[in-house]
Amino acid sequence: MNTRPVVLVFLLIVLVITSQFEWKQQIGEAAAADPAAARRRQQLLAREDAVKEKIILSQEKNIQQLNQLIESLQRQLLHCRGSNNTVHAATAAAATEVSEVKGHEIIEDENRR
Questions:
Q1: CA 43, 49, 54, 55 torsion-angle sign
Q2: CA geometry: angle at 12 spanning 8 and 17, to 5°?
Q3: Structural element, H or E, at residue 103
Q4: Alpha-carbon Rg for the chain in angstroms
Q5: How far is CA 60 from CA 47, 50, 52, 94, 103, in A?
Q6: Long-range Cβ contacts of 27-34 (<8 Å, 24+ apart)
Q7: Confidence bin at 75 (pLDDT 50/70/90)
């Protein structure tokens, strides 16, 4: 008695599984048989590819602009470093001159005494 319901359930499962395969196969054949749908699908894929390419080109352009900005900032940094070194050298030279003048003044003061 228990085997009959088990066999019926098993057959029902087999029937459902096979009908699913047939249904998917029919949908695939119907889609392949409809040239208008295939054309629309190709147009959508072409549009997607065009959008992706535009995005990539835009990103490449942004990367180039960023690289140019980086180069510009590096040049400005080098210029500032050069100016800073010049200021430090001038300051050091002026400090040296001031110390030499003070040294001469001290020597002159000692000589006067």
A1: positive
A2: 150
A3: helix 35-112
A4: 43
A5: 20, 15, 12, 51, 64
A6: none
A7: very high
CA distance 60 to 66: 10
Helical (H) or strand (E) element with 75: helix 35-112
CB 38 within 8 A of CB 31: yes
* CA separation for the pair 106, 104 (Å, rounded): 5
Max Cα-Cα span within the chain: 137
Please report the DSSP string for 12-37 in residue order: HHHHHHHHHHHHHHHHHHHHHH-HHH
Encode pLDDT of 89-113 as tens digits: 667 666 666 566 566 666 666 666 5
Owner of token pair 């695939």: 28
Q: Are 74 and 68 in contact (CB under 8 A)?
A: no
Residue 109 CB partners (closer than 8 Å, separation 6+): none
The pTM of this model reads 0.44
